[in-house]
Design a protein that fits this description.
It is a single chain. It contains 11 helices and 8 strands. By secondary structure, it is an alpha/beta fold. The chain is globular, with a radius of gyration of 19 Å. 45% of the residues are buried.
Length: 278
């Protein structure tokens, strides 16, 4: 199967690698220009090189994955059977992209979104192609879960196809009906926001908050470090969606979270968030 992945950032390039690791798929990794697509591919291949160096992957396996992963532009995706979108988490960016794909893609193609919180129903409204959510988690090559999300008009056949594809990739699909934040982020992102509140209140330091949740709740990573890993801009965007969709002030993003984003302290991808990264 020929698959297109749009967005060569951390998530998109990671998703492209997941598909390229499976011999059943050929992958085109696309972005707004070819230079960004090449950059995303190169970043994933560098990660594969590190795995070869650690004997977790053979050089032959690395070369096979690389051969199945081709940089592209969005206009090159017309022949893909499945297109997975992993661009900025805002409807203002995603919806025009889906309208473009609806005109570009072959009639039998499925359009999927890696959105972590937005409405599949709104993304699909008025389009000819079937649309579903296919939400991977970061880092995509490692995390086992894929949330498969149905909108109001998503056919059962489409959900079954996305579910089967996730299983082909070695992932565990969980079916989710449309709701703000779906399952994981509806629970997880407010927890990160609450950790920001605890930090802002001076209850404990960032290091001690994360140590407490790792040692006291058996979490593998603390909530503030997790926010840095996800990207604090993404955390903020999801909190805003949760508040807007539910109308519940318990989902109000903490002012410190907004301040971090305004300062460009987005976490690992900028080198600084609640913690500093080399």
């Amino acid at each position: 199967m020929l698959v297109g992945v749009i967005g060569a950032g951390t998530m998109g390039a990671g998703i492209a690698e997941v598909f390229a690791r499976c011999p059943d798929f050929e992958v085109k990794l696309a972005d707004v220009d070819l230079a960004l697509a090449n950059k995303g591919r190169d970043r994933q291949l560098a990660g594969l090189d590190r795995q070869v160096a650690k004997s977790r992957l053979t050089a032959e396996q690395r070369d096979q994955i690389a051969a199945r992963l081709t940089p592209a532009q969005v206009d090159d995706l017309g022949d893909c059977e499945l297109v997975v979108e992993a661009v900025l988490e805002t409807m203002a960016v995603k919806r025009p992209l889906f309208e473009r794909l609806d005109q570009l893609c072959r009639p039998d193609a499925i359009l999927a979104s890696n959105t972590s919180s937005l409405s599949i129903t709104e993304l699909a409204r008025g389009l000819k192609h079937p649309v579903a959510g296919m939400h991977f988690f970061n880092p995509a090559p490692v995390m086992a879960l894929v949330e498969v999300t149905a909108g109001a008009d998503t056919a059962e056949e489409t959900i079954q196809q996305i579910t089967a594809t996730a299983r082909q990739l070695g992932k565990t699909p969980v079916r989710v009906e449309e709701a703000a934040g779906f399952v994981v982020n509806r629970i997880l992102i407010p927890m990160i926001n609450e950790a920001v509140e605890v930090l802002a209140a001076g209850t404990a330091s960032a290091e001690d908050i994360d140590a407490a949740m790792k040692l006291g709740a058996n979490h593998p990573i603390g909530p503030l470090a997790l926010g840095d890993l996800i990207g604090l801009d993404v955390v903020l965007a999801i909190m805003e969606v949760l508040q807007a969709e539910t109308g519940d002030d318990k989902y109000r993003p903490h002012p410190l979270l907004r301040k971090q984003v305004r300062a460009g302290r987005l976490g690992r991808k900028t080198g600084r968030g609640f913690f500093t990264y080399a």
